[in-house]
């Protein structure tokens, strides 16, 4: 299999595939239509889930991994006093996120280049982790989930979504093509995802598919 982490770090790839993805996610109407046509998914649900960022109380720490171009961080409220850390393996994607940071939020958002499978944080450092469109783009999703769980405080929450196999034939074909060029990693099935969360010590609150997109909401026991 093509090394997906290396592919996402290549500037030419990010300027083409990465930029197209980032543009589409920034155009909600486009993303909704694409999600429905290709993945059979309710992408509006993804945007609704991002609103959790603005609901977190002051003093909390939020981890956004992989943060990509920084779409989720735009949900931070102007008066919200939180620490927000975006992590991505791709320097070009982090540059796109950096350009999106509003001046008023500059001291609250920190962007770090790192792999999701080995993040430079202490155990239990974050109250919330958001993980949108990420677990299908890593070489080993089970390791990534375990690493996220390690970084969560007891009672901390991780939610997001990713593309899974075996839900919709046209989506499976699309994912095979992206896997061939290194845009997607191995991903997994809904059952695989359930196992990853449980083995990482997380309690599953929601695990539902719309088309080939799996929406999840889990927490680390207190």
Automatic annotation (TrEMBL):
<keyword id="KW-0489">Methyltransferase</keyword>
<dbReference type="Pfam" id="PF08241">
    <property type="entry name" value="Methyltransf_11"/>
</dbReference>
<dbReference type="InterPro" id="IPR029063">
    <property type="entry name" value="SAM-dependent_MTases_sf"/>
</dbReference>
<feature type="domain" description="Methyltransferase type 11">
    <location>
        <begin position="63"/>
        <end position="159"/>
    </location>
</feature>
<dbReference type="GO" id="GO:0032259">
    <property type="term" value="P:methylation"/>
</dbReference>
<protein>
    <submittedName>
        <fullName>Class I SAM-dependent methyltransferase</fullName>
        <ecNumber>2.1.-.-</ecNumber>
    </submittedName>
</protein>
<dbReference type="GO" id="GO:0008168">
    <property type="term" value="F:methyltransferase activity"/>
</dbReference>
<dbReference type="InterPro" id="IPR013216">
    <property type="entry name" value="Methyltransf_11"/>
</dbReference>
<keyword id="KW-0808">Transferase</keyword>
């Amino acid at each position: 299999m093509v090394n997906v982490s290396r592919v996402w770090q290549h500037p030419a790839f990010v300027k083409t595939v990465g930029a197209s993805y980032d543009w589409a996610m920034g155009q909600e109407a486009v993303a909704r239509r694409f999600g429905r046509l290709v993945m059979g998914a309710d992408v509006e649900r993804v945007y609704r889930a991002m609103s959790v960022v603005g609901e977190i109380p002051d003093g909390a720490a939020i981890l956004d991994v992989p943060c990509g171009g920084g779409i989720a961080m735009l949900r931070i409220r102007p008066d919200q006093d939180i620490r927000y850390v975006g992590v991505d393996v791709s320097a070009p994607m982090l540059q796109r996120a950096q350009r999106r940071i509003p001046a008023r939020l500059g001291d609250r958002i920190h962007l770090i280049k790192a792999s999701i499978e080995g993040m430079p944080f202490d155990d239990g450092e974050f109250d919330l982790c958001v993980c949108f469109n990420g677990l299908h783009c890593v070489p080993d999703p089970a390791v990534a989930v375990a690493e996220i769980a390690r970084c969560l405080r007891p009672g901390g929450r991780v939610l997001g979504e990713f593309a899974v196999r075996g839900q919709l034939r046209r989506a499976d074909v699309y994912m095979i093509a992206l896997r061939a060029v290194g845009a997607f990693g191995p991903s997994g099935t809904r059952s695989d995802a359930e196992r990853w969360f449980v083995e990482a010590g997380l309690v599953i609150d929601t695990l539902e598919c719309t088309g080939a997109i799996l929406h999840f909401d889990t927490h680390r026991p207190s």
